Every structure is written in structure tokens, then in C-alpha cells.
Amino acid sequence: MNIFLENDYIKIGIKSAGAELFTVVHKRNKLEYMWRGDPAFWGKTSPVLFPIVGTLKDNTFRFRGNAYALPRHGFARDQDFEVVSTSGNSALFAIHDTAESLLKYPFPFQLLIEYTIHDDTLEVGYRVENRGGDEMYFSLGAHPAFAVPLIAGTTYEDYYLEFSETENAPRWPINAAGLIEGIATPLLSGTNRLPLTRALFLQDAVVLKNLRSKRVSLKHASVQHGLDFHFDGFPFLGIWAAKNADFLCIEPWCGIADAATHDQELTRKEGIEKLAAGAQWNRTWKVHFY
Fold first, then answer.
1. What is the overall mean pLDDT for the chain?
2. Which of 84, 90, 93, 241 has the CA that lies 20 to 30 A from 125?
3. CATH classification of 2-289, choosing from 3.40.50.1820, 2.70.98.10, 2.40.40.20, 3.30.1490.20?
4. Dist CA 59 CA 76 (whole Å)
5. Is the dihedral of CA 168, 222, 44, 84 positive or negative?
6. Sign of the CA dihedral 283, 150, 173, 45?
7. Residue 96 confidence (pLDDT) above 90
8. How many CA atoms lie within 13 A of 60 on its CB side?
9. What is the three-class DSSP state of 271?
10. How many other β-carbons are positioned within 10 Å of the β-carbon of residue 230?
């Protein structure tokens, strides 16, 4: 099932499968801002990363003496979400634990995702509820893929990312097993601008930690169309594109792939979120399209 939200400025579409955003059209400038999801490159458009972000060492975590297997980015992106409610400008989706999920992730939970549009801005809110009687450990991230080039007649290398603050932020490399290496490499040094090149992603995503910025903008050197992406509350940011594909993923994360040296204990995993029994956790990101 596809759900559409529309106002005088933008029209968006979300699939109930994975609660995945798949289109954002600006009605005034006629631009489609989302990647088309071509399976020849990458068939997704905006998967939800839960209850882990990235790859576990040997696809396995340990908790209280037991081992559990989870695939890269967890299982939410492959679930059919319940459409809890819709209105003209918002839609709420939900999944919860099942007998099957508890075999690979031993925590009773509910995950709610709400999409809301205000003028030419999309806001995406997450609420994680711990429905168990003990502490819950999880990660959550977003993975939206935006069309680049955005404008016909422009090239990928015409675009750049502009951070809201001057950054001194290295890149944390991902190895062939999908794990974070222990030694960072230089990337942003006394600048707020990252030029886009296809070579930037030949060795997987750019992973950034603890940026000063809470906003990053996708811009073009001479065309006045782009987007402003706000990610306050997310301590990690991933930037990625498939080889030679016409998109850029801007990925705010609460959580990160295992370090290459990690001992696989979930409670000691870098960036893991901890939620008390009966408690709720909330995060929101938003994008202004222009």
C-alpha cells in the first residue's frame, strides 16, 4: 500500500512496506527529489535502519550469554508496517515485536514512524517504545537517497554538501566485512564544504562522528535548487552512494556498525541506545526542499 501526503508545495509518497519514503515532488519547481530506486544500482529509496545500524561482527551480537543473528541494518526495512493513521499532512506507521523477531532480537518493542509535511518541509519522527520489563538496547537510523544530479543538464560533480558549521572531522573507514576501522583518515579540515565525486564512495560510506553541525545542505554551484537536511540529536552521519548511481544518501544515525575490534557484546557496542522498561525514545529529522 502506498500513502500520499500533499499540500500546496510538495507531494510525498510512503510505502507501507518498510515505511519507506519513495517520492518527494516539489509542485512549484516540478522537481523530483528522491532517487528512483533502480535495482540495477540499488533498489531502495529510504530504508529504516532498526534495531541496528550497519553491520554486526559476523552478523552476530551477544546479550546475557546468548548469541543472536541480525542482517546488516536490522529487519525493520523488510517489515510490512501497519498504517496507524493518515491525514492530509501526516501519516503514522508502526511495527512491534513478534514471536519471530524475539528469536533474533530479544526485546519487546514498538517502533512508530510519523511523516509530516509543512509547506515545503518534510519531518520524519521516530518513537521507540520498550514494552518489556527490562532495559532495551537498540540503534536506529535513516537512509534517504536523494537524486543527484537534481537538475537536468548538470553533473554529479557540480554538487556539494555544505555543513552549517566549520568542521574538523575525519572519515572512519569501513572494511570489507562492513566494520569500522580503528584509525580515521582526513576528510573535513577547517571547512564546511564537501565536494561530491563518485570516487568518494568507492570504499563504502563516508562515516562521520560527533559533528558540530546539525544541518547539512545539498547545493549546486550555480543552480538555486537543493535541500537543507536537519539532523539534531543524531551523533553519527553517513553519506553514501552506489557505484555510478545518480543519488546521494544522507543518513542520520543513532548507532553505528561494529568496530573491527568489537567483542560483540550488545551492551558495549559503540553508539548503542539504552531504554528503560516502559520508556519511550524520540528522534526527528527534517528536510526543506527548494
1. 97
2. 241
3. 2.70.98.10
4. 16
5. positive
6. positive
7. yes
8. 7
9. coil
10. 20
| Residues 6 or more apart whose Cβ sits within 8 Å of residue 199 | none
pLDDT band, very low/low/confident/very high, at 130 (cuts 50, 70, 90) = very high
Say what the pLDDT of residue 88 is: 87
Chain-centroid distance, C-alpha 158: 24
Rounded-to-integer distance, Cα 273 and Cα 130, Å: 12
Residue with cell 570489507: 176
* 3 state SS for 170-211: EECCECCCCCECCCCEEEEEEEEEEECCHHHHCCCCEEEECC
The Cα 141–Cα 249 span in angstroms is 12
In the chain, where the domains are located: 2-289
Q: What share of the chain is helix, strand, coil (3-state, %, to 5)?
A: 10, 50, 45
C-alpha cell at 24: 518527494
Question: Is residue 181 packed enough to be buried (19+ CB in 10 Å), middle (13-18) or exposed (0-12)?
Answer: middle
Instruction: Report whether 132 contacts 108 (CB < 8 A).
Output: yes
Burial tier of 96 (Cβ tally within 10 Å: 0-12, 13-18, 19+): middle
Would you say 46 and 36 are in contact if contact means Cβ atoms under 8 Å apart? no
User: 78 is written with which cell numbers?
Assistant: 523488510
